[in-house]
Design goal:
Collagenase (Catalytic Domain); about 15% helix
Amino acid sequence: MSRTRFASVVLLLALSVPMMASHSWGGYHWARTSNPFTLKLGDNLTSADWKGHLSQTSSDWNSGSSPVRTTVVAGTSNKRCSMVAGTTQVCNSRYGNNGWLGLASINLTGGTHITQGSAKMNDTYFDTATYNNKNEREHVMCQEVAHTFGLDHQSTDGSSQNSCMDYFSNTGANAGSTQSTKPNSHDFQELSSIYAHLDSFSTLSLTTGLDHMAESLSMPVRWIGDDLTEVWQLGTPIEWDHKGRAITFVLEFGSDHDGEEEAILSHVFWADDDLLDHPTVQHSNE
């Protein structure tokens, strides 16, 4: 597939796939003309508990010499967490028994530049005894917000790297553990690497999002990355994990007025199989 001009890319928190040596997410980054820069985190959260976790996450990522600074502002989205240009909107809701705890989405322009993001916390699971504890909530909030910076996972094998960008589970016997609830030094090193270069423009001040894609789809911009919470909405599977489950999907829409291909790319990490009440998309060898 050729380089996309506009895309929505999705990461979902779940369990294990092999460990990664570096955890830049595809080189995706916010365009900006200077470092450090400040990303607005829109607070659409419905409880004091979640609001506290967002405040803590913002404070934790503002530590050290990171080029990415965050500030929590009033949210301008809704419970479906429609994206807003130049910001990351943060939301919680009962998004359903779809297998994910947290979902981060980013829209791209020019193939690599983030224009807007969203981070969703799925209360369908967080309201259960298994996941309803402060350390698991902090872990997921910290990770999903950071995906919208352009960070991927440090590890997905279930071990703790003592980074919120791993897949350690703060549940069960580990419910009282604060491991993996905050960023570690390697996270900040990776952000410094991702943002080592400057751009000639900024996507932090955009007032429009995916206008060209919206025109070609004949539907409102809010649909993009907003309702993509179920597998059947994600398009054609193009990559599978070691269990044969589809983890990467593509939904193509042809070309815009400038002749550049438009698509939504989705990357899914599944939760434990026993959490799912629907079948995952399996790879066929036929």
